Amino acid sequence: MTRPTPPALELREITAGYDRAAPVLRGVSLTVGEGEAVGLLGPSGCGKSTLAKVAALLHRPFAGTVHLGGAPARGFRHRAPRAQRTAVGVVFQQPRLAADPRLTLASLIAEPLRATGRRAEAAGRTEELARSVGLGGDLLARRPHEVSDGQLQRACLARALALRPRVLVCDEMTAMLDASTTAALVAVVEDYRERSGAALLAVGHDRTLLERWCDRTVEMAAGAEAGTALRSARRAPADTSAG
């Protein structure tokens, strides 16, 4: 009898925040299957970005567990084992806060490769990634203050894909971008997922975008008494009726 494939990402009973006396999240559970795209919807302040950081092993919860490919996370941030830390790629809302202003875009993209001792492949992989997100020419020699938000976010997405993650967490990735750049970056993510089979957790407040992009959406609403409730809905099938 074949065993079922474990989820790519599973968050179990997560309680998290920045003050134990008043956690932002209380007992939240969320599953993202292998190759699945899940959209996490919710208003500002409901805790969805905190949940995204927990999923990316960047924030230790007060209670609950994170599982990647069926294996429990054995640490967070620099204490996470390299294999688990590199299994998740993350793109944040504000690229200027996520990028070292001293680095060129080329160095920014290559950062994960160099940090994991893969300097030999850094040049070729950086060129490949830059091309995939629409960056080239002298842009790669520029620093963050010399490029637009959209160009910098393209570099941040390329950086997130550098180590070929099995799970991609996009936390409001397109919130600061125009429609054409949003479409371009979503297309890059989907191309990567199609080729790699990676799972996606896309966090945002744009219902239309997430419902079109993801296989299902999960809606988050915070309440002081009830904790945090998640309501899930699958993407509606395309209308193939005549007329």
Assigned CATH class of the domain at 9-75 and 83-98 and 164-234: Alpha Beta
CATH architect. name of the domain at 9-75 and 83-98 and 164-234: 3-Layer(aba) Sandwich
**Residues in β-strands, percent:** 15-25%
Helix percentage: 25-40%
How many beta-strand segments?
A: 10
| Shape by Cα distribution | globular
Major sheet: order of its strands? 6-7-8-3-9-10
Supply the CATH superfamily name of the domain at 9-75 and 83-98 and 164-234: P-loop containing nucleotide triphosphate hydrolases
CATH topology of the domain at 9-75 and 83-98 and 164-234: Rossmann fold
Radius of gyration over alpha carbons?
18 Å
* SSE pattern, N- to C-terminal: EEEHEEHEHHHHEHEHEE
Compute the average pLDDT: 90
Q: TL;DR of this structure?
A:
The chain has 8 helices and 10 strands.
Keywords summarizing the entry:
disordered C terminus; Rossmann fold; alpha/beta; 4-stranded antiparallel beta sheet; 243 residues; 8 helices
